[in-house]
Every structure is written in structure tokens, then in C-alpha cells.
Amino acid sequence: MSRYDVDWDEMEDLAVVAPFFDELRTQFAEGPAPEIGTELATLFVFGAPPVGVVKPTPAPSTRSRTTRRVAAGAVGGLALIAGMGAAGALPGPIQDPVASAAKFVGLNLPHAHHHHHPTPASGETGGDKEKGSSPEVTTHAHRSSHVPTESDQPTPLKSDGSTGGSTGATGATTGQSGTTTKRTGTGSSTSTGNSTVTGSGSAVSSTGGSGSGDHGTNGNNQHQRPTYHGNGRTTRNDGSTTSTTAPPSGSGDSGGGSTPTTTPPDTTPTTSAPTS
Amino acid sequence: MPIFHPVDPLGESFPHVLNAAREGSGWAFEQLFRSLAVPAAGYLRAQGMADPDGGVNEVFLRVFRSLGTFEGSEDKFRSWVFTIAHHLVVDERRARGRRPVTTELSEVDGSHPSGDVEEEAHRLLGDDRVMGLLDQLPPLQRDVILLRVVADLSIEHVAESVGRRPGAVKALQRRGLAALRRLLERESVTKGVSP
Question: What is the extent of the structural domain holding A161?
Fold first, then answer.
């Protein structure tokens, strides 16, 4: 009875069923031997090629397969971002965080270069709008490739809003990588390197460059130095303007359609535009 | 066709026979076959397989083809063989459910239940008595009872064969015993004798 692994409360059932089990075993477990088919008979006579012991390898679970795929995708994505970051090919908003993050692991990736396309400001349409606007200036200066020059001195940009319409460029320097992005509500302009593009009444920001146009606002610093205007005027710290006779020779673009005719700043004591 | 008589369990010689079978020795295949062919064929017959002898041949062909994947003792080999046999039964059960069973009219004559209870009871008392009782069990209870009694497998090995936990197998066995007891008591009442 115990060979059936039954519980005590099943013993009564088993006592009734046991004769049936004996009959079942006699009829089926001890019956006649089965006939052997041709294939098995051949196997018994001639044998078969030896088979090695193959340990069954458990199939990878769905979970582990999914994990592997996700991991492979993550690694591939990281490699792609790292490659593009090393090449500096990532979009600006992504390049900077990636470069910053890479610094933590000892990688020196280039920061984003904000390329500014000087837009010729309209000298007559900008108007004197700066006072009422609060321009948002974002400056990224990539100093790694910068060759300091005299013209790199910060340019004070104090806008008094009193002048406009004429632009000037001062100071010709080389290889300036300072970039500035400026967004204003009305009449914006940007400057890259030494060139200064101004529009009448618009704000000008410049970093590292020499000279400025009208109504500049320095997004990088607030040096209290007079500003030389391309139209021959210089703005002092107190906002007053003095006239000069000739602008310095420079590479700056002219905006507003007027050609600078001022004298170089070094010949005019009242100007402070960096000389070069 | 040669007829082999069943042999006793291989016992201590089982590892040697198993290794010889893996090396392709015909005599080893024959030894393994003879040790389990009779209960395997009985299990297939008790499950109502149409061609139990052909089923046994198919079971052992599968066993010998997959011999390289097996490792273990003789008890485990027995359990493995009956697991394959049980899978064959399940396959035929499913196939039978999908297609209608065709039966020769000559076989139907004289065996069709007349509807008379006494005549039906007498039929159960005959050769088909055991099969008639087993047919009244649910398939899972029938599987467990047959694997326990005919195949002589332990609860754990039956659980492996039917793909269930040992606790579930014990529960199925308990319900199968109770069902068989009720059937036997009902049969004794019909016959007017004690079971």
C-alpha cells in the first residue's frame, strides 16, 4: 500500500481500489512484449554511429535576450554620441553637455561653436529700441584656440541709445574665436571675432573683439571704458559721446551702409577702441 | 518479427549498457529496449492508443536518437522513457480531438452498448472492464494513475512526466483514487457483489 505514497485518509480508498490496481498491473505492466519494428530491429543488429554526450544548454530566457538588446542599443547609442561629440558634430545644445560630461572622464571634447552669420543691420530701421528691451545674451567663448591680441581687450559697450544709423568697425585682429549670440526683441545683430555689425538702435555684443558699433552691450563683461563708435563718436562711461575724425582701420563690417571715416583711435585720445 | 521477453531492471550494469548504447552498440539498444518495452507498451495500451506496438517503437527510436542528451540513473532513464511515451499519448489525444475517428463497421457490431444497464455492467466485467473504468476518469487523473501503477514511477517522476508539481500530482492521485472507489462501489452495486 505504501508504495503509492498515499496519505492516511486515502488508505480507505486504496483498500477498495487495490484489487483493481493489481488487475491493472497484471493486464498492462506484465503483458506480452511488443513487436519490434524494422527500424529498431536494424538498430539492434547493426548498431548506430556513436553519439557524444550533449549537455543540453538552457535557452536564453526572453528577459535576458531583451536585456542584451537594450544594452547593445545603449552601448551603440553612447558610442555614436561619443563619436559625434569627438568630431564636434553634435548640435550645439547637446555638444556642450556632452563635452562637459566627457571632462569628468578625462576626455577633452570640443565645445559647441556658435557660428554667427553677420546680418547686415539696417541702419535706419533699427531705431533706438534698446532701452526698452532686455536683450538676452549668451556667450560662449572658446578660448582653447584663441590667440590673445591687444584687440582682445573687452570692449565696453554702454549704450546710451542716443546714436544710431552709422556703424563702424574698429581694430583689426586675427583669429578670434569669440562668439556671441544676441537675441533682442528688435533689431538684433551679432558679432564674431573682431568684426562688429551694428544696426541703428540695435544692441551689439562682442567678446574679445575690438571695437563696436552703436549701442553695444557687452555680454561678457562690463568694463568701464569708453566706446569708440564707427561713426567717429566715442561713448564715455557716463554715456556722453565725443566725436572723432577717423576710425581705426579694421576688418569690421559696416552696417547701415555708411563707411567709417574716423581716425584711428590711437590718434584720438578720446577714443578707447583697442588698437591693433 | 522477433519477440523479446522483458528483462529485469539492469541494475548496476545500467551505466555500462548506457555507455555502450551511446557508442552505438546494437546489443545495448536491445537491452535498454527489453528492460522497459513491456510496461511502455502496456501504458500506451491502457491509454487507448490505437497502435501501442508501433507507439513503443516510436518511443524507443526517439529515445535512442536523443541518447546523447541523457544523463542519470536507471530510475531517471525509466522516467525519461515514460515521459516520451506520455508525450506520444498527448499528441495522439490531440490529433484524435482534431479529426474524427474512423471505425470499421464489423468492429462496431456486437460491441455497441445496448443501453441496458445490466448488459453494460457485464461488458465492463469482461476484458474491457479495466479500460471501461479508466475511460471514466478525467485524462489527468488517468495519466497519473497509469504512470504510478503501470509505469511504477514515483510522485516526483510522474510530476516530471506530466509537467506538473509533485503536490499537484498527489492531489490528482487522491482524486483519482476517490473516483475509482466510487466507480468500483457503483459497479459492485450493479453486480450485487462487493468490489
Answer: 118-276
Residue A248 lies in a domain: yes
The answer to whether the predicted template modeling score (pTM) of the entire model surpasses 0.90 is no
Range of the domain at B29: 1-100
Pair B82, B155 in one domain? no
End position of a domain, from candidates B47, B69, B100: B100
Which residues of A, range 204-233, sit inside 8 Å of B by Cβ? Answer: none
Residue A250 falls within a domain, yes or no? yes
ipTM reported for the complex, 2 dp: 0.76
- The DSSP-derived string for A128-193 is S-GGG---EEEEEE--TT----GGGSPPP----S---S--------S---EEEEEE-SSS----BT
Q: Considering only CB atoms, which chain B residues are within 8 Å of A14?
A: 177
| Same-domain pairing of B67 and B30 | yes
- Is residue B62 a part of any domain in this protein? yes
Of A183, A180, A151, A138, the closest CA to residue A251 belongs to A151
A131-167 tens-digit pLDDT: 444 444 444 444 444 444 444 444 444 444 444 444 4
Of the residues A7, A36, A38, A42, the best mutation for testing chain B's interface (the one with the most B CB atoms within 10 Å of its CB) is A36
Question: What residues 108-137 of chain B have any CB closer than 8 A to a CB of chain A?
Answer: 130, 133-134
Question: To probe the interface with A, which of B71, B156, B181, B187 has the most A CB atoms within 10 Å?
Answer: B181
pLDDT digits (tens, 9 = 90+) for A209-234: 444 434 444 444 444 454 545 454 54
Q: Does A59 touch chain B (CB under 8 A)?
A: no
Query: Structurally, how many domains does chain A consist of?
Result: 1
